[in-house]
Design goal:
There is one protein chain. By secondary structure, this protein is mainly α. About 80% of the residues lie in helices and about 0% in strands. The chain contains 12 helices and no strands. Helix 6 crosses helix 11. The relative contact order is 0.14.
Length: about 325
């Protein structure tokens, strides 16, 4: 399991990201395709629930169930291999759209990192605003997810906490599968500025409701958070298409998400312990205080990004990096 879990997780990420291979083949539907790629993660949660159902309710043998899903994963990998555009097809089509040729001659980690930094520097203000907004939002939302059970225990009581936890898992699997492609569709119809503005409104309502000790309100919070995450992942995917050349799209997006994950891991592993020591085990302020700090920072950084987009828009084609 220690070997299989990271291999399966990495394979799932690569398989989902393969959908990005079609974005220059269907330039009018790029955000929708990005939404489809994002929804594959939630769809995998649905399949995970089916696996649990097979084992718990249908009494399937654990090894047989895992073998069936392994075969399903292998079939998906084979289908992806034969249906996804080759690198040459991807770059040929991208050249037609952006007007210049961009290919990766060197795929070493150090070279990719240097090229990614060049992309960041090419549009410093836009990229820094995206970085600050993304990191603060990611830290806030996933901090809330990490402390959800304990927070709900204090806010609503242990019984309601269990219900929220179960409902959230189910909502994330089902609603997220639908919300991500829908977010892509809305993006295509509204444009990046209006889309991010609407996403920010959803985020602010979620942030305001999070402090209310009411079961239905907290369920609404869960729904709003899932919708916002679907919008956010679609937004940063499409933002990357605007600001990164085709050959560095994955590098650019990977750098943004890696920094988000590393920051969240550092804060998520230390902050709850610190808040527990400061406010005590029975105080809601051990959760309210970081929610206020991270939420305020997320809103301010996201508003700054929205103002930038209103004033300057996005490039007609992504910058070329030598």
């Amino acid at each position: 399991m220690y070997v299989g879990l990271p291999v399966a997780y990495l394979g799932g990420i690569l398989n989902s990201f393969a959908i990005y291979g079609f974005i220059w083949h269907f330039p009018k539907y790029q955000a929708f395709l990005i939404g489809l790629a994002n929804s594959s993660y939630q769809l995998s949660a649905v399949l995970g629930n089916i696996l649990v159902w097979l084992i718990d309710d249908m009494k399937f043998d654990l090894r047989v169930s895992l073998a069936l899903f392994s075969l399903l994963s292998l079939l998906a990998a084979v289908l992806s291999y034969f249906s996804t555009p080759s690198p040459k097809e991807f770059y040929d089509r991208a050249e037609e759209m952006v007007g210049y040729r961009s290919e990766m001659d060197d795929v070493s980690l150090l070279f990719c990192f240097k090229q990614g930094l060049k992309v960041m520097v090419a549009n410093k203000t836009a990229n820094l605003l995206l970085l600050f907004s993304s990191v603060s939002v990611y830290v806030y939302v996933y901090y809330w997810i990490a402390v959800l059970d304990n927070f709900m225990d204090l806010l609503l009581g242990s019984h309601n906490s269990l219900l929220i936890g179960n409902d959230f898992a189910l909502l994330y699997a089902i609603l997220g599968t639908v919300a991500s492609p829908l977010a892509g569709y809305v993006f295509e119809k509204s444009g990046i500025t209006l889309f991010w503005g609407l996403s920010l409104i959803i985020f602010m309502v979620y942030t305001a409701f999070i402090f209310i000790a009411n079961m239905p309100v907290q369920l609404v919070c869960c729904i709003l958070m899932i919708i916002f995450l679907s919008c956010w992942f679609t937004f940063i995917g499409k933002f990357s298409v605007y600001y990164a050349p085709p050959n560095l799209l994955g590098v650019y997006l990977g750098m943004i998400l890696s920094l988000c994950g590393i920051t969240q891991l550092a804060i998520g592993s230390t902050f709850p312990i610190a808040m527990l020591k400061v406010f005590g085990v029975n105080s809601l302020w051990q959760y309210f205080f970081p929610f206020i700090i991270f939420g305020s920072l997320s809103i301010l950084c996201s508003i700054a990004l929205e103002v930038y987009l209103l004033l300057f828009g996005t490039p007609d084609v992504p910058p070329m990096v030598e």
